[in-house]
Amino acid sequence: MKPEETIDFHIRWLWAKISRLYNAEASKHNGSMSIGYVLLNIDKEGTFSTKLGPKMGMESRSLTRTLKTMEENALIERRTDPDDRRMVRVFLTEKGKEMREESKRTVIDLNEHVRNNIDPDKFAVFLDVVKEMNRLVDKPGIFKNRTTHPISNEKN
Known about the structure:
Elements: H1 7-27, H2 33-40, E1 47-48, H3 49-56, H4 60-72, E2 76-80, E3 88-92, H5 94-117, H6 120-138
Antiparallel strand pairs: 1-3, 2-3
């Protein structure tokens, strides 16, 4: 099977292009796609730092580095939760709120561009397929019928 015949090739190829596009736009504002993504996922009343990673599907190490950078750039501030002093909430600063709006406009612009250039019926099918693929990938046992090790070809 050629790489371009696989599902993951096209998903990864598209995501790499989108990522480069977002990073190029974010760099004009001294940001990154990761920073923009975090900005868009912080609630007005603050978000528990422990909830951000799962909410975005981001690894904790990457999130920790991103939050540190955002704090150094005065985009966020961390505050101890008054009800549970063991928990920390992340809040946007005024600068963070401005950058959040820029991130939001960027996402909206890309989405409008795609929606304006792809037939609505095709786009609806695309969303249905992606949602179904997401469901399928979450199901256990995708590789349960494999009889050899995928790399060494040894019997399991």
